[in-house]
Structures are given as C-alpha cells and as structure tokens.
Amino acid sequence: MSLVLDCSATLAWIFPDETTLPIRALFAQVIQAGAFVPDLWRLEVANCLTVAVRRGRITAADRRESLTDLNDLPISIDNQTGRHAWTRTVAIADKHSLTVYDATYLELAMRLSFPLATLDADLRKAAKAEGVALLGM
Predict the structure, then answer these.
(1) Which of 10, 36, 63, 129 is most exposed, with minimal Cβ within 10 Å?
(2) Residue 122 and residue 78: Cα distance in Å, rounded?
(3) Strand order in the sheet with 75-78
(4) With a threshold of 0.90, does the pTM exceed it?
(5) Do residues 9 and 123 touch, judged by C-beta distance below 8 A?
(6) Strand runs labelled E in 48-120
(7) Which helix (H) or strand (E) holds 69?
(8) In contact, 27 and 18? CB cutoff 8 Å
(9) What's 88's DSSP letter?
(10) 10 Å Cβ neighbour count for 24?
(11) 129 and 137 Cβ atoms separated by less than 8 Å
(12) pLDDT averaged over the chain?
C-alpha cells in the first residue's frame, strides 16, 4: 500500500524530538512501499529545514544530510498537482478552511485513493470529513 506524505510527517521523521514510534513505522512503510507527494513538498520541506538552520535547531550539515536521506527514499512527485490547484484544491481549501498548501495534500490523497500521513490537526480533521484514511499518529 502506498500513501501521501505531507511535510509535517516528514519533519517529524527528521527532528529527533518529534520522532515517535508511529512516525518510525510510517517511514519504514515509505522505505518499503514508497509514497507520493505533491510537487510543492520539496520546497516546503527545504524551507522548513532552512528556517530550522536559521533558528539554530539544526546545522546546515544536518539539513544537507536530511535532504540527501529524503532524496534516497522511493518518494514520487505528483506531476498533476498544479493542474488541480485552481479547481479541486481551492474547493477543498474553502470547504475545510485549509490553506491551499494543506489542501494540496488532501486533494492528492483523494485523487489517488491513498491514506494521508500528516500530523497537522486541521488537515487530519478535513481528511476524516472526506473519508480519507490517516497515518502518522
């Protein structure tokens, strides 16, 4: 079974103080079966790690190592994300009061009929309302 992976679950795998047993299990599943992400995922993860470097939470070397590790995982970038941004994704964002960025993950999970791995409370609530299976907690 594959899944849609969001930035919050990804960062929980990277930051030791956020890593839990469910997150470890989730990434074991990603390593084994892969995951799908919208095309904004790389930018979002890179931005969060850059902010973490600036705030002294991690070093630039930690960021580089984390990005290398993520790049080595069988994670597929969805090339249709932008095609749905102004239609389905905006509608999902409006319906559930989500950011368009968060709605992008939910739209992808709905389109692929895959579970969504997220730690974001609002996104989890919206996914439940849409009948999307959840992973990550």
Answers:
(1) 129
(2) 23
(3) 75-78, 35-38, 4-5, 116-117, 134-135
(4) yes
(5) no
(6) 75-78, 116-117
(7) helix 60-72
(8) no
(9) I
(10) 12
(11) no
(12) 95
* pLDDT tens sequence across 67-78: 999 999 999 999
Give the C-alpha distances (Å, rounded to integers) separating 122 from 19, 55, 78, 87, 109: 20, 25, 23, 20, 15
136: tokens are 């990550």
Which residue type occupies 18?
E
Amino acid, single-letter form, for residue 48: C
110's CB contacts (< 8 A; 6+ apart) are: 92, 130, 132
CB neighbours of residue 93 within 10 Å: 20
Residues sharing a CB contact under 8 Å with residue 134, sequence separation 6 or more, in sequence order: 115, 116, 117, 118, 124, 127, 128
Among the listed residues 122, 119, 90, 125, the one whose alpha carbon sits nearest the alpha carbon of residue 104: 90
- Strand 116-117 versus strand 4-5 pairing type: parallel
Other residues' Cβ atoms within 10 Å of the Cβ of residue 86: 10
CATH number of 4-135: 3.40.50.1010
What residues have CB less than 8 Å from 72, skipping those under 6 apart?
Answer: none
